[in-house]
């Protein structure tokens, strides 16, 4: 009896107290179970220490590595067998090697293959349906384009004074050039993501004419397609930077039998004999043709490549050049002179103020005094590439050495194709860590330079011209958007903020975008994927 009386009298206050306690418990359960677990403040070292899908791989930081080639340039007697020449009659379209055994394949990738839901995300049904809908009729094509155009920024973003003034996304077109409709949409996504420009590496996919036509891929774009790509990029306010290799990585021409005589070393179709003016004429012709097409779109920057030229100064004509023209510095003088002449040649052709960029890895190993004598620092801006998780190839002193001659530099990170050569699935966390590491590196190193121009976020199609594809574009797209968000929000490294921004840009449903092993590949986002090659 007394219990009922108590309840009647105190009923209301018990109900209120009870409700408060229930609310509090729900609140507690919520904050302890929602992502990220624990403190929402996640520090850089926690990311770096977090187990990643692929960590231990030796090839982690390779750029476009050569064929297991000795780096010692003096001893070429004991080099491996010459690389098998690619015959002109052979199919030139490199297909992805599916199901290829790869002993470096990470465990989780194999596990992913066994997952029943997403056997192959590149041909996920949702992506297919998106892709199939797009090109059917002109109206549908237009509707899709409008959908993206509506979101794309109308004017060039002004990033003066920002952490990275320039944020360029790299498109390596060798091997698998995207179809135009796909590429146009991708460029809209690039602009929409906030990048300020693109670096275009055409290689054998350019509509080469004249003496270069014979090296053109059967998948190459035609003039109208190139125009459509460039028009789209320009209308989106993107700065367009072409890249033409001029020193090493000339496999796309040197692999042909008739070009063999222009190699530095007959065993490798990579480096062109720098002392052979007849051979260099092919390089100059490539520069002429690309500049001719690009100059109407503006050429504030031009990239001459020049990375990973592991052997030079050994062909007969190079040795003669060194004997006659290099009173000091030997083959380094030959290489540096070549870069100088090439940079001047580019500047003379563009008919406008053009800054010449080159990868840094050769420059950093040349004698500082030789670079100074040639005043290369006034002609070329190095782009420092490092795709590792803690920028392993660029210790403090390497930046100091570069700073002796080059007042202005660029950073280069990766969004795809730089983890290991046989990678079919993308480890987005790996690239996230690489791009975060660049933010920290830039902050600590930039005081050595008068200007740090920006970042080029690279997406490699394959490890070199003769290798198979890795981490194809549809798979690399979410990573591209994510890495651009990191660059945009830098120096702020709040992962919740940049990940949320990436999810929005990719039109992902709530929580559908995550940087957690392979979960990122799902069908609840709105970007294009699926059958994308030309
Ligand atoms: C030395 O340099 C000059 C000027 O560039 C060039 O014309 C000449 O051919 C070079 N000598 C040799 C042996 O290549």
How would you explain this protein's 3D organization?
The protein is of the alpha/beta class. It has a single domain (58-88, 107-460, 467-505), classed as Glycosidases (TIM Barrel, Alpha-Beta Barrel), CATH 3.20.20. It contains 16 helices and eight strands. The chain has helices spanning 2-33, 44-49, 107-114, 125-133, 138-151, 180-193, 223-235, 251-254, 277-294, 316-325, 330-350, 368-373, 396-405, 428-445, 473-489, 495-505, and strands at residues 166-172, 197-201, 239-243, 301-303, 355-359, 380-385, 408-416, 451-459. Strands 3-2-1-8-7-6-5-4 form an eight-stranded parallel sheet. Strand 6, helix 13 and strand 7 (408-416) form a beta-alpha-beta unit. The structure holds 2-acetamido-2-deoxy-beta-D-glucopyranose. Residues 275, 320-321, 324-325 line the site of 2-acetamido-2-deoxy-beta-D-glucopyranose (NAG). This is beta-N-acetylhexosaminidase. Residues 109-118 have a biased composition (Polar residues). It comes from Diploscapter pachys. Belongs to the glycosyl hydrolase 20 family.
What would the keywords be for this entry?
single chain, 534 residues, TIM Barrel, elongated, binds 2-acetamido-2-deoxy-beta-D-glucopyranose
Quick recap of the structure?
The protein is of the alpha/beta class and 534 residues long. 40% of the residues lie in helices and 9% in strands.
């Amino acid at each position: 009896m007394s219990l009922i009386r108590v309840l009647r009298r105190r009923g209301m206050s018990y109900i209120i107290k009870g409700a408060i306690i229930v609310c509090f418990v729900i609140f507690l359960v919520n904050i302890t179970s929602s992502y990220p677990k624990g403190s929402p403040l996640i520090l850089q070292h926690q990311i770096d220490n977090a187990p990643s899908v692929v960590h231990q791989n030796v090839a982690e930081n390779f750029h476009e590595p050569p064929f297991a080639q000795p780096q010692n340039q003096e001893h070429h007697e004991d080099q491996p067998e010459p690389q098998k020449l690619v015959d002109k009659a052979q199919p030139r379209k490199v297909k992805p090697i599916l199901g290829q055994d790869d002993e470096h394949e990470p465990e989780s990738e194999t596990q992913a293959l066994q997952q029943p839901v997403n056997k192959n995300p590149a041909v996920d049904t949702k992506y297919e349906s998106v892709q199939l809908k797009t090109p059917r009729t002109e109206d549908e094509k237009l509707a899709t384009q409008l959908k993206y155009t509506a979101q794309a920024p109308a004017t060039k973003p002004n990033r003066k004074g920002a952490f990275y003034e320039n944020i360029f996304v790299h498109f390596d077109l060798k091997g698998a050039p995207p179809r135009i409709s796909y590429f146009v949409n991708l460029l809209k996504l690039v602009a929409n993501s906030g990048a300020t420009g693109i670096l275009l590496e055409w290689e054998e996919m350019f509509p080469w004419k004249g003496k270069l036509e014979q090296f053109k891929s059967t998948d190459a774009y035609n003039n109208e397609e190139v125009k459509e790509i460039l028009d789209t990029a320009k209308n989106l306010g993107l700065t367009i930077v072409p890249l033409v290799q001029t020193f090493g990585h000339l496999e796309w021409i040197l692999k042909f039998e008739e070009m063999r005589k222009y190699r530095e070393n007959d065993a490798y179709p990579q480096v062109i004999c720098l002392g052979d003016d007849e051979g260099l004429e092919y390089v100059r012709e490539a520069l002429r043709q690309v500049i001719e097409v690009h100059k109407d779109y503006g050429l504030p920057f031009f990239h001459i490549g020049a990375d990973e030229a592991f052997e030079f100064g050994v062909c007969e004509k190079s040795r003669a050049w060194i004997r006659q023209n290099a009173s000091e510095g030997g083959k380094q003088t030959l290489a540096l002179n070549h870069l100088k002449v090439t940079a001047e040649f580019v500047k003379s052709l563009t008919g406008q103020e053009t800054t010449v960029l080159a990868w840094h890895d050769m420059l950093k190993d040349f004698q500082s005094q030789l670079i100074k004598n040639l005043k290369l620092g006034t002609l070329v801006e190095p782009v420092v590439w490092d795709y590792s998780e803690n920028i392993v190839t660029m210790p403090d002193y390497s930046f100091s050495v570069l700073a002796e001659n080059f007042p202005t530099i660029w950073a280069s990170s990766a969004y795809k194709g730089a983890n290991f050569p046989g990678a079919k699935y993308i480890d987005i966390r790996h690239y996230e860590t690489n791009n975060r590491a660049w933010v920290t590196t830039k902050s600590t190193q930039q005081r050595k330079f008068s200007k740090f121009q920006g970042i080029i976020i690279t997406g490699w199609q394959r490890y070199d011209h003769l290798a198979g594809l890795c981490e194809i574009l549809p798979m690399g797209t979410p990573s591209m958007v994510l890495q651009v968000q990191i660059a945009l929000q830098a120096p702020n490294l709040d992962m919740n903020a940049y990940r949320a921004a990436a999810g929005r840009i990719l039109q992902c449903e709530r929580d559908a975008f995550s940087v957690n092993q392979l979960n990122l590949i799902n069908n609840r986002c709105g970007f294009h994927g699926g059958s994308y090659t030309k």
